[in-house]
């Protein structure tokens, strides 16, 4: 079902079991998700975010492509999150779930700053307790292309100070709050005492977010090797003009990512990465 939110066109997906998600064509951005039989909103969306063409949305699931953060010459986090995508398919799947696919290809605008021909597709599938978001990229050029990417998922929590992310113990991470210093996580669970900005490398297992105010949520990755965990903390959040007062305490970003080693695609080659959230 097509609609509008702010100044953006949206597609609302409703599965037969009542699961629901809203996706803006701008950025192929998932704005909202509710699991079947549970009215709780699972994603955080800032009350102060702008919803208009060309502007990055604070919350939901920004699609980061073809550059993570400032790791290259492109605008921070690439251009996919601020460009219009095209809805190419929506409807029920054979398994009784509901899905929508949006596409972004090269244009004069992208080629002016990133001289590659590509097709990116984002497929959002809901049903039961899960939301699956899959990013697929095809190199439509005669030369190899390389990119980094992430699904910058803002998971809603009641209070980030009482939330804990399990499954990272023993893994290496780059600490972006310490100039990218590499460390090994020795904690039973990641908690958020202040700013957290880490790139975990080669994450082999599912993660579980436990939040004192809501049932747990698991995050599964397929094709994405890394996981970025980010929360600005109170001090840095104060400088984010698109985040409401105290908003930082109501989310933890857990981002399926491919950052440490860029994906390199030969001409005609294809890559796919997916993140599945499951409400417990
Ligand atoms: O404010 P932006 O551009 O949406 O980025 C938010 C954050 O995104 C995270 O992925 C990065 O690790 C952080 O360093 C960054 O601050």
TrEMBL record:
**Gene Ontology CC, one term:** cytoplasm
Checking CDD domains in the record gives: D-hex-6-P-epi_like (cd09020)
Give the EC number. 5.1.3.15
Q: What is this protein called?
A: Putative glucose-6-phosphate 1-epimerase
InterPro entries named in the record: Aldose_1/G6P_1-epimerase, G6P_1-epimerase, Gal_mutarotase_sf_dom, GH-type_carb-bd
Catalytic positions are 152, 255
Superkingdom, natural source: Bacteria
Gene Ontology BP, a term: carbohydrate metabolic process
Q: Name one GO molecular function term.
A: glucose-6-phosphate 1-epimerase activity
Q: Provide the top EC class.
A: isomerase
Q: Which reaction does it catalyse?
A: alpha-D-glucose 6-phosphate = beta-D-glucose 6-phosphate
Q: Which family does it belong to?
A: Belongs to the glucose-6-phosphate 1-epimerase family.
